[in-house]
Structure formats: C-alpha cells, structure tokens
Amino acid sequence: NAGVTQTPKFQVLKTGQSMTLQCAQDMNHNSMYWYRQDPGMGLRLIYYSASEGTTDKGEVPNGYNVSRLNKREFSLRLESAAPSQTSVYFCASSEYSQHTDTQYFGPGTRLTVL
Amino acid sequence: KNEVEQSPQNLTAQEGEFITINCSYSVGISALHWLQQHPGGGIVSLFMLSSGKKKHGRLIATINIQEKHSSLHITASHPRDSAVYICAVRIQGAQKLVFGQGTRLTINP
Lengths: 114, 109
Fold this sequence. Notes:
Helices cover 0% and strands 48% of the residues of chain A. Chain A is built from no helices and 11 strands. In chain A, a hairpin with a 6-residue loop joins strand 5 and strand 6. Helix content of chain B is 0%, strand content 61%. In chain B, strands 2, 4, 5, 9, 10 and 11 form a 6-stranded mixed beta sheet that branches. In chain B, strands 1-3-8-7-6 form a 5-stranded antiparallel beta sheet, with no helix packed on it. In chain B, strand 6 (52-56) and strand 7 form a beta hairpin. The model of chain B has no long low-confidence stretch (mean pLDDT 94). The chains are: A mainly beta, B mainly beta. The interface between A and B is medium-sized, with 23 and 22 residues.
C-alpha cells in the first residue's frame, strides 16, 4: 500500500498562475484533509472532506478550491497564486469516528510563489 | 492566544536523557493527538488519547482532562528521536484538528 500520495513534490509558480495539487489515498478512508504549514506556525486546515461528495472550509480557505473527485482523490486548486500562498502543503486522510481519527499524511508539496 | 500551546518550543538534550514535552489547550476536546515530523518533513501519528496514559516503546503520552494538559515523555532518548513533535486536539463536536506550533527536539550523541 502506498498510503497517501501527493503530486507534485515541488512547484514554483509566478503570481497569478494557477495549479492543482493532487492527493490520493489507498486506505479506503472516508475523510480527507488539506493543510498548509508555514514557518513558526502550526499546521492549519484549508479544506476537508468528511465523505465522498462533501467538502467544508477550514481555518484558511481563501484563495483555494477543492474537489473530492471520488473516495480516493482530493485535489486542491489555486486559481490565482499569490506570494502569501508560499508554503508546504500536506494532504491527509483518516477513517473518522467517535473513537478514532488517526490521520495519515502525505509527503507534502513545497510550493513557492514568486 | 492559540487554542493549543506547546512548551518548550525548542529542546536540546544529551543522548539517554528523559524528555518531557508539554501541551496545554483552552477548549473542550474529545481527543488529543501527538504527531512526529521527521527532519525530512514526513508526519506520522504517534498517539491518540481521550483519557489516561498510553505507551509505545520508549514513548509515553498522558492527558489530564480536568487540567487541559498533556505530556509526551521519551525515555532513554536517542539521536534518532530528533524531530518536531506536534500536539493537536479534536474540538468537541467538530471533526477538525487544531494544531500546536510544535516542539523541535534535538538529541546530541
């Protein structure tokens, strides 16, 4: 099992360009998440999907859109990149229930916006 | 004020020392997580706690719900324990996690 995979690993964009970060999991989890990690700050939730067909905003959704394409895949789109979106992006998945929500993280995408 | 605060922010110790990392939170929670982020950036979940204590190898996590406080202990620390340790809480009634800023641990040989 690959777990959670993300593509690309690195990306450099110019201000105003768009791109989509891809995430896929092979653990049959219902829930998937997108986080960003900035120096000196904890992980912050951008969007999450509790189940296939649903998405909800997290703490920092502005400037991003998401698509839960199917149970396996959850993509994050930047429509018009800004330097403030320079960050490391992590995708995660979990089988959320009252008793467990251990999250499994992808390796991350390091994005630089010039 | 952050909902989840960790201390210390940075910790350097010698191999073999007993390590304690603290996490305090200010909201009602249904669970608390400890995660480890390796120097290469990968993040793995270590523990999920809703009460009491859990142990896995040399790692021990405790939580005091009344005091809104959790600790992560490492016994017989080793250089391979060098990493950032992250505390996260699941707020009551919500699916989302809120993360602390992390504690950077360095164990010198």
